[in-house]
Amino acid sequence: MGGYRTMNTINRVRITINGVHYTISTSEPEEYVLGLAQELDEQIKGILEKNPSISFNDVMVLCAINYIDAYKRSEENADRMRTQISEYLEDAAKARIELDEVKRENAHLRRQLDGQEMKGQTKLDVK
Predict the structure, then answer these.
(1) Rounded to an integer, what distance in angstroms lies between the CA atom of residue 4 and that of residue 60?
(2) In whole angstroms, what is the distance from residue 37 CA to residue 66 CA?
(3) Beta bridge partners of 11
(4) Which of 84-93's residues contact partners 24+ apart within 8 Å by CB, and which partners?
(5) Interatomic CA distance for residues 97 and 17, integer angstroms
(6) Is the pLDDT of residue 124 over 80?
(7) What is one Gene Ontology biological process annotated in the Swiss-Prot or TrEMBL record (predicted)?
(8) How far is the C-alpha of 55 from the C-alpha of 61, rounded, in Å?
(9) CA dihedral 55, 59, 60, 65 (to 10 degrees)
(10) Which of 9, 11, 107, 116 is most deeply packed, by most CB within 10 A?
(11) How confident is the model over 70-99, as a mean pLDDT?
(12) Is the pLDDT of residue 7 over 60?
């Protein structure tokens, strides 16, 4: 199970959440699904340890809220990063245009300077 499977391959993965066994059909690699299950199981156990009288249903609702919150925040962060990257790309494009303009001006000034030096050399040669 060293690599990722193709999207068409369906794996049946047996997981255990709070002592209950579930079989998941998924196209994801077994190791990935087992990791998710372990993370969920640890979160459930943590909530149950802090609140021994809470129902399993309530624990699942709290877990779902936590994961939805994390998902929404990561989406917002991704949107901010995309916006920031777009701004950086725009700034880089403007800087590239400015650099090209400076290079053209530099080349123009060099040609002018070379022309002045040649005129100066010609005048010196004439004497």
Answers:
(1) 29
(2) 15
(3) 26
(4) none
(5) 58
(6) no
(7) septin ring assembly
(8) 10
(9) 140
(10) 11
(11) 95
(12) no
Sequence spans of domains, the chain:
1-52
Query: Which amino acid type is present at position 101?
Result: E
Contacting residues for 15 by C-beta, under 8 A, at least 6 apart: 21, 22, 23, 24, 33, 34, 37
3 state SS of 2: coil
Query: In this structure, which amino acid lies at residue 39?
Result: E
Instruction: Please state which architecture CATH assigns to domain 1-52.
Output: 2-Layer Sandwich (3.30)
The per-residue pLDDT for range 20-75, each reduced to its tens digit, is 999 999 999 999 999 999 999 999 999 999 999 999 999 999 999 999 999 999 99
Please choose, from the candidates 53, 9, 47, 13, the residue with its C-alpha nearest in 3D space to the C-alpha of residue 30.
13
